[in-house]
Structure formats: structure tokens, C-alpha cells
Amino acid sequence: RKPPSTMGEKSDTPTYSLMLFFLFWYAGNVKYNEYNKAALDSVGGKSAGMTMTVSTMQLGVCSAYALLIWIIRLNPIKMCGLQAPDKQAFPKSKFGDIIKTLPVGFCSA
Asked: Which one, of 83, 80, 85, lies nearest residue 20 by Cα?
């Protein structure tokens, strides 16, 4: 049996959502880069030797924020599509799944 085609069918997601996601990602990326430049300049720039300290502190603060969002189970990404955030279930990861992701995490670090 042939699966039904989705070409030309209307979806439940508005068409402007993808464009808004991209727009908010790009604007956030620009602001993030400006913030990083200002943070490094405030401690003496790239050659002052504080680059790893600033980046480690940023990683710690963002990790704490991500952990908080994960604990209260909030899914804020929907706000980028101008939708209300909703509750998100905890992932059903097993120990084996986490072990499988370690090589990717190690290589990206």
C-alpha cells in the first residue's frame, strides 16, 4: 500500500513559523556574538588571557539555565514561533543511549 502524499496539503503549523524560527535564531546569534565580543573586551580582549575563564563562566551559567528549564519541564522554543510555551515530558533515555552519545560529545568538545 502506498503512503498518502503530503504535497499540497495544508499542515497544522503556520507557514510563517519556520521563517520566524530562522529570524529569531539569526537575531539571537548576532546578539550572542556581540555579547561575547563585549565580554572579552571587558576583561582585556583576546590577548589578555581570560578567554577560557569567560567562556567557562558562560558555559556554567547557560548549563544552569538549561538544567532549570529541564527541571521545570518548560519548552520555550515554541515562543519563537509566537506560540505559548508548553510543558514537555522528560526524555525516556536509557543509560545505553547516553553512552552512545559520548563519542559525538567528545568530538564536538
From this structure: 80
